[in-house]
Amino acid sequence: MTPKILIVDDDPSAHFTLENLLFPEGYSLQFANDGADGLVQALLWQPDVILCDVMMPGMDGFEFCQHVRADENLTQVPVILVTALDDRQAKLSGLQAGADDFLTKPIDAVELRARLRTLTRLDRFRKLNEERLKLEEVHGRLLQAHEQLRLGEERFRTFVEQSVDGFFLTDEQGSVIEWNQALAQISGLEREQALGKPVWEIQVELTVPEKRPSPEELKAVTLELLGNGQHPLLSQVNDAELLTVRGERRFIQQTSFPIRTTQGYCLGAVVRDVTERRRAEEARRESDQRYHLLFQNMVQGVVFQDADGVIIQSNPAAERILGLTFDKMQGRTSIDPRWHSIHEDGSNFPGETHPAMVALQTGQTVHNTVMGVFNPQAESYCWININSVPPPRADDDDQGGGQGRRQTDRRRSPHQGRPKEAGLSARDGPGPGQREEGRPRHHQPHPLRRGHSLPQRGGAGAGGARPGGRPLR
To answer: Is the pTM of this model over 0.85?
Structure first.
């Protein structure tokens, strides 16, 4: 590369002389008439060496040299000061200003060429060294970026392989480039078998026969997606049924998403096996259906109440026993005076001693409590046998057939606020005051019918009744 020399001198004859000396040597020359113009030319041209006269009007050579050294874009450019002064003080001033060398007028051509060859060679070495340092810095940053990329890929690989969900990724042409172990277990298709295979072929292979799409249609949809990154089903959880390589049917939830690249889009997907959950849900639905069938057709009356003792559910047997439809029972509590609850001796049955209330306070099941209640439909009393059962203890709000406990009443016991259930049994036989097994006779209420007693506030009751039978034991 041709060395570039900037000549700064206010004397046009000096320009002519230096041009005749240096141009034949193959140097590229640029001229400036004063110090200010020289600084502008230096910044624009970036010379390899600057030749500057010391004695110039305005900005002299020493000041020019100071400006060059103060500019970060010029500070490394060698400067030769040309001066008619041949004294020691002038050279010291030049060195202090940042000059690299001196030439004394009249200029010796041989000396000038030798100085320029030395300085241009040193400047070339300096620039090569700077380039080397820059390359080393860039190389270091590249190594650091490569290491970060490697660590990121390693973390990604660990995440993908340790995930319990299946994961696959395609390239811009739709060929599989990632297929983790979880997806291999879900589908039965090993990673080595999936890699490099078009994703639409795998999807057709793993779809159940009755829902299997045509390969051509699925390929067209996939390629369109990879082209524009758009599809109505992208980024949504989609339910599907999978036919594994082993011939098993599995239920999955798949979320597909596009990944933008410089060549278009890749396709990624997360696949979750929900087979066991679906089976558990189906088993629960079947269990709920059996429970509902039993609840609706059992002979015993069953009533559920929430944490405040409010009736929230009852079965038909309870409605028959109590002589009330659910609409009329709903919202009542165990302290409602319309129940007219009594003991077998005809005395009042306080709500706080109701079996459901006791179960609520103690968390223990209460069995075989006999109570008389008023049946408004028959306009008479009937005997019921109550079994009050609290739900299992739990930290969360168990329903147990009713609402969970309120969190605002801190005065309640640990068992309080949990729904209870009570078994109700109607019995035919002597009423209050009638003699049974030596029991003294007291006042006689209305003829006995089926009925039910409710728990006190804060409890819940449910139960069953067996009309015309003895109290449950």
So the answer is: no
